[in-house]
Prior knowledge:
Layout: E1 7-10, E2 22-26, E3 31-35, E4 43-47, E5 54-58, E6 61-69, E7 78-82, E8 85-88, H1 94-116, H2 120-132
Parallel strand pairs: 1-2
Antiparallel strand pairs: 2-3, 3-4, 5-6, 6-7, 7-8
This protein binds zinc ion.
Amino acid sequence: MKLNRISLLRVHYMPKLFEPGILYVSEEYGTAMHLCACGCGLKVTTPILPSRWSFKDTPHGPSLWPSVGNWTQPCNSHYVIDDGDIVWCESWSPEAVMAGREHEKAKRAAYYDKLYDRDWIGRAWNWLKGLFAR
Ligand SMILES: [Zn+2]
């Protein structure tokens, strides 16, 4: 079964057994591992290095860039981990998929800004947003 969410677990050493839906990150060893999000059971290793993958711990979950592409595996999975979401990009390039996501996020933010701008909820909302601003 394809997963849509993944959560972060910081570890020192990688465990022997992996659970689906968890991104294991060892910053000491500069590596992240998880089970392929399609459910095939494949262990995916993504070195956290300037030349390989970059990892970010956001309030919503982990982000990993660039995408994870298991081309050499039977499942051929291809996805991006963004804010704890598993964003599938089978027929689109990851850049196109993420550009669409950013566009949706901006549209949603603009919608709520307009909705709550004039009253006290707006001020509370902006205050809250300020708290969680990255
Ligand atoms: Zn897979």
